[in-house]
Amino acid sequence: MIDWLRLAESLISSPWLYAVLAAVSFLDSFLPLIPSEPVVIVAGVYAASGQTDIVLVIAATTLGAFLGDMVPYTAGRLFDRRLLERLPPGSKRRAAHDWFARELDARGGFILVTTRFIPVGRYLATLSTGLVGFPLRKYALFVAFATASWSAYTALTGYLGGVLFQENTLLAIAVGVGLALVVTGFIEVVRRLRHRRNAVTEQPRP
């Protein structure tokens, strides 16, 4: 298995770094074992000392993540008819499928943007979005915003750590990863609270 973090550090001063960032972000969109966040954070840390270009770090990461998110969506669209054939009307699985389709139609942007910051959530959301036949144009628009936001946030947390701890690269990386984990946890808490509130609101009154 490729050690993406070590590979990125070995190419910090090389233009090939941006190809690595695009590749790892692409693969991380549908392969859970690929650790894109630490790699992007490291690139952001070195941007604070001028060894990498923060704009190119964000651009390469956004491009890779956007293209990567198209893979599970496309796979979902290819199998959506087969899925519906196995979900007879009136079944619980069909009800869950229809519920998610309605949720996406009502707040697809919120779901795709917030789950992009949650490693496991991003895979499930993008695949499920394809399975329920969410429109490609809307999906591409929301995913473009989601991946750009995620890329900027991840790279800039590393950059902030690099600015604060220029004399200690390891500490800067640790701070960047810590910030990323805190914000990701906060987003997940907000998402769960919002989901519970919506569930209570939508319960039929007796």
TrEMBL record:
Membrane topology summary: Multi-pass membrane protein
For this UniProt record, give its keywords in alphabetical order, as a comma-separated list. Answer: Cell membrane, Membrane, Transmembrane, Transmembrane helix
The record's subcellular location field reads:
Cell membrane
Q: Please give the Pfam families that the UniProt record associates with this protein.
A: VTT_dom
Q: What is its main location?
A: membrane
Membrane-spanning residues? 16-34, 54-76, 139-164, 170-190
Q: Where is the VTT domain?
A: 34-159
The entry assigns this protein to a family as follows:
Belongs to the DedA family.
The protein in question is named: VTT domain-containing protein
Task: Give the source lineage, highest ranks first.
Answer: Bacteria, Bacillati, Actinomycetota, Actinomycetes, Pseudonocardiales
